[in-house]
Design goal:
Helices cover about 0% and strands about 45% of the residues. The protein is globular, with a radius of gyration of 16 Å.
Length: about 240
């Protein structure tokens, strides 16, 4: 089985092309995702390490790699045999390609699970990115009600990819990815505040956007249900992270 949502990662800040509007009003249908490595995303441990998170109530996933913050890999191919999912990442090409900065930062690439994968059970992701290959064991979410292959509800969701590290999935204009202004948290709750710019010009599409949030080791309880409050940036609300 091959996922129909590909490629599912692009660079934050893509040039606005056609249908420019003020603000970030968007219509459903487009699938050109963005990834936003936030300043709060923490340090870099190993450039070859790959992590992952479960998103969109079990319909989607994020693969977290380390590299240039302006050159986020795209999910090119996704296939599945039972609960083993094979994922191939590629660097952006064509209009999505941009000069890469020489920094090292965690980046999140978003993909969709093929039909037949059960998000309530454990999943193994076999990830290939260039010469890097890694297997990631992804815990299933017994409370997940989304079915891979079904339509998304375009709701924010988040999943842990590391100790104190979250991938936040939001939906909106691909050229106006959320920008973190501040992040705080302790215990089983945290608040992410985003920059609000009413004058920002955004493309009128609806795309999945990944934002990395790192609360730091031993700062929050990622073994219990976590309440993530979103403030500003048109994202006001609360996301339950299981």
């Amino acid at each position: 089985m091959t996922s129909a949502l590909r490629p599912l990662a692009s660079v934050i800040g893509v040039a606005a092309a056609a249908l420019l509007i003020v603000g970030c009003t968007a219509g459903p249908g487009a699938q050109s995702p963005t990834s936003s490595p936030a300043p709060s995303a923490g340090g870099v441990d190993d450039q070859n390490d790959i992590e992952a998170a479960l998103l969109d109530d079990g319909r989607m996933f994020a693969v977290v790699t380390v590299g240039s913050s302006t050159c986020v890999p795209q999910v090119d191919q996704v296939t599945a045999e039972g609960q083993t999912v094979t994922v191939t990442l590629v660097d952006p090409e064509g209009e999505s390609a941009k000069p890469c900065t020489k920094d090292l930062a965690p980046r999140a690439s978003i993909g969709a699970f093929p039909e037949g994968v059960d998000p309530t059970a454990d999943i193994t992701l076999n990830v290939t990115y260039g010469e890097i290959t890694d297997d990631v064991d992804l815990d299933g979410d017994p409370a997940a009600t989304g079915t891979p292959g079904s339509a998304t509800e375009y709701l924010p969701s988040a999943g842990w990819f590391d100790d104190g590290g979250l991938v936040l999935l939001t939906w909106g204009s691909s050229s106006c990815a959320p920008v973190v202004e501040s992040l705080e948290g302790s215990g089983n709750a945290g608040t992410a505040t985003f920059v609000t710019d009413a004058e920002q010009v955004c493309t009128m599409d609806m795309a999945p956007r990944a934002t990395l949030l790192s609360f730091g080791d031993d700062t929050v309880d990622d073994d219990a249900t976590f309440a993530l409050t979103l403030v500003g940036g048109g994202l006001d609300g609360t996301v339950e992270v299981r």
